[in-house]
Specification:
The complex is a heterodimer of chains A (319) and B (264). Chain A is 26% helix and 13% strand. Chain A is α/β, with parallel strands linked by helices. Chain A has a domain of 181 residues: Rossmann fold. In chain A, the strands form 3 sheets. In chain A, strands 6-7-8-3-9-10 form a 6-stranded mixed beta sheet, sandwiched between helices. In chain A, strands 1-2 form a two-stranded antiparallel sheet. In chain A, β7, α9 and β8 form a beta-alpha-beta unit. In chain A, α8 runs parallel beside α9. The N terminus and C terminus of chain A are likely disordered. By secondary structure, chain B is mainly α. Chain B has 2 domains: 65 residues, no CATH class; 187 residues, no CATH class. Helix content of chain B is 75%, strand content 0%. In chain B, α3 packs across α4, α6 crosses α7 and α7 runs antiparallel to α9. Chain B is globular, with a radius of gyration of 21 Å. The chains are: A alpha/beta (319), B mainly alpha (264). At the A-B interface, α1, α4, β6, α6 and α8 of A face α6 of B. Chain A: GO terms for molecular function: ATP binding; ATP hydrolysis activity. Chain A: This is ABC transporter ATP-binding protein. Chain A: InterPro entries: AAA+_ATPase, ABC_transporter-like_ATP-bd, ABC_transporter-like_CS, P-loop_NTPase.
Chain lengths: 319, 264
């Protein structure tokens, strides 16, 4: 089913059982009229026409320039006229074949993709009515590759609070201290099953799974209204992947976040909706086999036996 | 800088020939040892000889005419050449930073002339081409290499930090916040030779300008003071130019919607 353009209140098959939510529904309406991206042979989304031109001229002997000389690439529109909305507490799985543009769609929603155009509305406010920074603070994109900065995990997790968007309001006045204190930090880490992560360790010493979870926590602590998780459990073992899923479920359930996940694993039963992006169209998969999300306030920290083991690496990286 | 005093030792044609011969011998060694630099070495030597002689004639002409218009016209030409050199020396930078380079070079020259030349050296007449043109030349030489290095480093560093930048932007960082580590690294990189030169001058190294003045017969103490002023002024202006070019250029890596776009 192709969703009609501009349909902002399309709340199909809500399986959310929470009644304690006071937050009025957060709507992200995304319509992408024109997304042009260069699709290389492996489905990799890279540079568009405009910048490819620059690239050619400026590249010189750079490796990127050399690969450009293959000349086999074509430009194509990944998708156009997509629309969907999501509500607070939603966990939406975005699925579809490799190269369909799932990551592109997420970066378009976060206004991070220079090649995408989108009309976006959050709780009735269009994205054009606020700075891109303020939009991204509320609609946070979580990249697949874990990137942590600073000397310790604590520094890495608190980094967002050094940014202007967390310190100053849109009119330049100082915001109240949003930075979580030490106790909150530790409690949040423990509640989402990160008891194994010490705050004083250098982030590079963490395992990949731990890094992925710390990145997730960093975004979680900034309390966005929407979180766009781009294959954050890719390349992780079952235990870490499940912990990542549990953290997201926790955020949706207890923080009322709306969450979109791009995943390549089999459904873990945490999503209440599934959207399929394929061939440039977005379809709501109704009657998904996913059960109602668990209402347990604390997600299990122990590994949950998986019903269907996923063959690892079913798809290459999205970019 | 009165070179024509009793103790000056002008270079005659024989001197030039001997110099070029020495370069030829060095290039021959490079050729014999297959170091692969002989061609560039010879070419650069010929170029520098012609360019410097040409500059000598031009400055001589401008000094003799003693016209402010001519002096400033020459400075304008020097700025244009400096833009071209900067753009060709900085590898893998987008071409559309040319206006920013122009602005930066012009600002540092104006600052140099108005503040330094007129307040520190105070030549008579105020536009004395001997001072204005030579000071501008020395300043531009330093600023060009500093901002070329800084820009190359900046765009390369941004490219290598692209995942970090994406992460920072996705958490609501402004372009400046996302680019800051690259800006800091690039300014430092551009300033390394300048600061090293400032700190080491006088210990073993006698900088070219002081050496030239002393050889040409000037009082060594006067030459030292001149050299200090020139080095310190150039360093300060280079740092300013480095900061200015970064402030003007970092936005090139971002769209109007504060999205990162790879530059080169």
């Amino acid at each position: 089913m192709r969703l009609p353009r501009g349909d902002r209140n399309n709340t199909v098959a809500r399986m959310n059982t929470h009644t304690r939510l006071v937050l009025s529904a957060a709507h992200v309406t995304c319509r992408v009229p024109r997304t042009v991206a260069k699709a290389a042979a492996d489905g990799e989304v890279t540079l568009p026409t405009l910048f490819r031109h620059l690239h050619r001229r400026g590249a010189g002997a750079a490796a990127a320039g050399a690969s450009d000389e293959g000349g086999a690439e074509t430009l194509r529109t990944l998708f156009a006229d997509l629309a969907f909305s999501l509500d607070a507490g939603d966990i939406v799985d975005l699925v579809g074949p490799s190269g369909a543009g799932k990551s592109t769609l997420l970066t378009a929603i976060a206004q991070l993709n220079p090649h995408a155009e989108a009309e976006l509305t959050l709780e009735g406010t269009p994205s054009t009515a606020m700075s891109p920074e303020l939009w991204r603070r509320q609609v946070a994109y979580l990249p697949q590759r874990p990137t942590l900065t600073g000397a310790t995990v604590r520094e890495a997790v608190l980094m967002p609070f050094t940014l202007r968007v967390h310190r100053k309001a849109a009119d330049g006045s100082s915001l109240a201290e949003r930075r979580p204190d030490e106790a909150t930090l530790r409690r949040t880490l423990d509640v989402v099953g990160c008891t194994d992560i010490e705050l004083d360790r250098p982030p590079q010493d963490l395992s990949v799974g731990q890094q992925a979870r710390v990145c997730l926590l960093r975004t979680l602590l900034t309390a966005p209204k929407v979180m766009l998780a781009d294959e954050v459990d890719a390349g992780l073992d079952e235990e870490n992947a499940d912990k990542v899923g549990a953290i997201l479920a926790y955020a949706a359930e207890h923080k009322g976040m709306a969450i979109v996940r791009v995943r390549h694993r089999s459904a873990d039963g945490r999503a209440n909706r599934t959207l399929r992006l394929a061939g440039g169209t977005l379809t709501e998969e109704t009657g998904a086999a996913a059960p109602v999300p668990s209402a347990a306030p604390v997600p299990p920290a122990a590994p949950v036996p998986s019903a269907a083991p996923v063959p690892p690496g079913t798809e290459g990286s999205a970019r | 800088m009165n070179a024509a005093t009793a103790n000056s030792y002008p270079i005659d044609t024989l001197g030039l020939v001997v110099t070029v011969l020495l370069v030829a011998v060095a290039a021959g060694i490079s050729y014999a040892m297959r170091l692969g630099v002989h061609r560039q070495m010879l070419w650069a030597t010929v170029r520098s000889l012609l360019q410097l002689l040409a500059m000598g004639y031009i400055i001589k002409f401008v000094i003799e005419r003693n016209s402010p218009w001519l002096a400033f016209a020459l400075i304008a030409v020097m700025i244009l050449a400096a833009i071209q050199i900067t753009m060709s020396r900085a590898a893998n930078i987008p071409r559309d930073v040319m206006p920013q380079v122009f602005l930066t070079l012009t600002a540092s020259v104006i600052l140099q002339i108005s503040v330094v030349t007129e307040l520190v050296i105070r030549p008579h007449p105020w536009y004395a081409p001997a001072v204005l043109v030579t000071m501008t030349g020395m300043l531009l030489g330093n600023v060009v290499s500093a901002i070329a290095v800084a820009m190359s480093r900046f765009f390369a560093d941004m490219e290598s930090r692209r995942y970090e930048i994406e992460m920072l932007l996705s958490l609501g960082a402004t372009p400046f916040e996302a680019a800051r580590p690259s800006i800091v690294a690039s300014v430092k990189m551009g300033m390394i030779p300048t600061i090293a030169q400032l700190a080491s001058s006088g210990i073993v190294l006698i900088p070219g300008m002081m050496a030239g003045q002393v050889i040409a017969g000037a009082d060594p103490l006067t030459a030292a003071k001149y050299q200090f002023v020139v080095l310190a002024v150039i360093s300060a202006l280079t740092l300013m130019a480095d900061s200015l070019i970064m402030a003007l250029v970092y936005k090139v890596s971002f769209t109007k919607l504060d999205q990162y776009r790879p530059a080169a």
